[in-house]
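The instructor's notes for this session suggest beginning with a concrete chain rather than abstract definitions. Hand out the sequence below and ask the class to guess, before any prediction is shown, which regions might be ordered.
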Amino acid sequence: MFEEVRSVQKRKPKCAPAAAPAAAETVSPAQQSDEALAAKAAHGDADAFEVLLTRYERYIYTTAFGFTARREDADDLTQEILLRIWRSLPQFRCESHFMTWMTRIVHSMCTDWVRRQKKRLPVCTLTPDIDSPDDPPPPEPAADSYDSDPFEVVRREERSRLLREAVASLSEEHRMIVRLRDVENLSYEELAARLGLEVGTVKSRLCRARKQMKCYLDAHHFFESY
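After discussion, reveal the predicted structure:
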């Protein structure tokens, strides 16, 4: 991947690394902030970008796999996302959080991939019938109970299909916050930091997203069948 990244032509970024006193030169890249590393990477510093990779590559792959549900597709999509981030660094505005900026790119590209492939979103363990974002999702039945009854297998597949469709019915903004909370299990504080929002705003959006999902599932008789 890095051979491709290194071949990208350098462009003048919107923000440059701030001048630092001589003592700051002893700070290792691993100790620097995301924003400082991003500013250096925007000037073509592949080593700085490599440090960012060590921090976020696993998150990017996990998110990509959640959308693609296949290792090969997740690998390819992860590489596309990393290259997009590298090429977009000159447009990164240093006054914002790098993680917030990166997360939007990741989820935008994952959503685009779903549209291109014309596939539905994978299973999402959500609680569609609750009004409060603090209520925990119900436990899934044991796998053995499905294996022993073919009708349960069919019901489970249908349930998964409806949940995928319910997630897909959300706006990109709501879909992203639902996935980060219910699939990646981020806390409200982590969500707020990643998205650059207040915790109250995170809870409000999550609640609205779940209510919208409940309306979709009600319309498809989800709760009558299960």
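Then share the key points. Residues 8-13, 20-24, 119-133, 135-146 have pLDDT under 50 and may be disordered. The radius of gyration is 20 Å.
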